[in-house]
Amino acid sequence: MMNAYDALMAHQRQTEALAQVAGRLAWDQETVMPRGAAEQRAEESAALQAVLHARRSDPRLGEWLAAVDEGALDAEARANLRLIRRSFERVSRVPEALATALARLTSRAQGQWAEARGNEDVAAFVPVLEEIVALKREKGAALADGGDVYDALLDDYEPEAKAAELQAMFDALRPRLVALREAALAEAPPAGVTGTFDEQAQMKLARKLARVFGYDMTRGRIDKAVHPFSSGSFNDVRITTRTSPTDPFNCLYSTIHETGHACYEQNIDQAHGFTPLGQGVSMGVHESQSRIYENQLGRSRAFTGWLYSEMRDAFGDFGIADEDAFYRAVNRLHNGFIRTEADEVQYNLHVMLRFDLERQMIAGELAVSDLEEAWNARFEADFGFAVDRPSNGCLQDVHWSVGLFGYFPTYSLGNVYAGCLHAALRAALPDLDLHLARGDLAPATDWLRDNVQRHGGLYRPREVIEKATGGEVSEAPLLDYVEAKFGAIYGL
Question: Of 206, 317, 193, nearest to 246 (Cα)?
Fold first, then answer.
């Protein structure tokens, strides 16, 4: 007969496999599913979520957890036990009917959001978003058990993080980022790219970049979607990107960003497959990988020198005279509405806006019907110009339509983590730029694989970063990096 731990893990492996199937359904919905299948997919997703909820809250889990002799387990087994216990306790607080209703609603809402976004019609999306917010409040209250509802939702994406701690971090980031933005935007901007860029050629170069950054195409694929994302783990990890005929950087850097997510999943120790350790430990740590791939590596002077040559081969003359001008173009500060297209200096300001608004919606301090007005007023106050249309405003992100309340702050936390990791990476690899200038990312990505990615869920989120860097998490390395980089570009 199996002992309690073996029985627990046998049950968990099947649960993890079913969760991968649910993820594949979501990937399909965002990429190739026929539009007319939306209602059917909502029922399919709800049915699968009901099965997953039942498995994750199965009373036998509590019996097995109580029966396991932790003293007889190694570190990996104890980590599995910690994560299963955490999941069991959280899922058991959420009624199955609520979990199923959320799955059905958010599956349907994705299509409604996309249609409303395409039609620039906020009013068409407000009713379903009101339903989502109500259900997320209900879920958060069940999870919080008398505590802070938003913190309980945040814990889904960044375990053990608290909104108040993140607010303090963001308050420390904001003044120096705003001062840097204002100083840089007061200077003459670098020239940008001009002309049109064949979209098939963009996708060809995007696939090459993914491979250069270590993405294993035998265990993944790249498709197009409205909103770029990464999906899956273990040996089936898929990414999407998007193209614009006048903005090749949108495609190329979205691809590098999602490759960071995908490589994290692909590089987790294979022994952790179909266990709680077999996926990224948190969205903040996940975002640290996508952001360091995209920015500190992908937008570095050394790597952009190599990319300039690749761009010339793919597109011919595109209005940039040399590698130095290309580096400045890639890192050009620009006023814009879209978070995913924002430069490194302004990106976190976009995240802070969303963090504040979603906290207000969950707290009941902001009615969903007032979201557009609140977004537009806050955006103009923060960025100095007015939102021109909803797709550039409160309808631009998919997150709220799929119920991801508590997700947005992990983007900025990931940037902070990336700043810490980049400082440690540079200290460990003093000749890194020589490799980047040749398009050789292996030294950097190998370091990240060995120090961050391979662990999966073995350690707690901040513990992963602190073990990799040998120091405490701080926003200082990120701020020092952006001030030095953009100060040099803009002669500040």
Answer: 193
pLDDT tier for residue 245 given thresholds of 50, 70 and 90: very high
pTM attached to this predicted model: 0.94
Instruction: Indicate the helix (H) or strand (E) that contains 269.
Output: none
Is 350 labeled as ligand-binding?
A: no
Average pLDDT over residues 444-457: 98
Asked if 250 and 243 touch (Cβ cutoff 8 Å), the reply is: yes
Tell me if residue 258 is catalytic: yes
- DSSP for 123-142 reads HHHHHHHHHHHHHHHHHHHH
Show the tokens assigned to 212. 């250069």
First to last CA, the chain: 70
399 is in an annotated binding site: no
Rounded (10°) CA dihedral 461, 464, 470, 472: 0
In a domain, 155, yes or no: no
CB 154 within 8 A of CB 325: no
The answer to whether the annotation marks 257 as part of a ligand binding site is: yes
C-alpha–C-alpha distance, residues 444 and 431, integer Å: 11
| Distance from C-alpha of 238 to C-alpha of 52, rounded to nearest angstrom | 22
**The one catalytic residue among 30, 158, 258, 294:** 258
Per-residue pLDDT of 170-193, as tens digits, reads: 999 999 999 999 999 999 999 989
Whether residue 425 contacts residue 448, with contact meaning beta carbons closer than 8 Å, is answered with yes
158 lies in a domain? no
SS3 226: coil
Q: Is residue 157 part of a domain?
A: no
Residues 29 and 136 reside in one and the same domain: yes
Strands 222-224 and 230-233: unpaired
Query: Can you state the percent helix, strand and coil of the chain, rounding each to 5?
Result: 70, 5, 30
Whole-number pLDDT of residue 341: 86
421 token code pair? 């990791």
Q: DSSP string of 64-113?
A: HHHH--GGG--HHHHHHHHHHHHHHHHHHHS-HHHHHHHHHHHHHHHHHH
- Cβ pair 148, 163 in contact under 8 A: yes
Question: Which pLDDT tens digit goes with each residue over 120-175?
Answer: 999 999 999 999 999 999 999 999 989 999 999 999 999 999 999 999 999 999 99
Which residue segment(s) compose the domain that 245 sits in? 163-489
Are 168 and 127 within one domain?
Answer: no
Residue 223 in tokens: 């498709």
CB burial class (10 A; 0-12, 13-18, 19+) of residue 107? buried
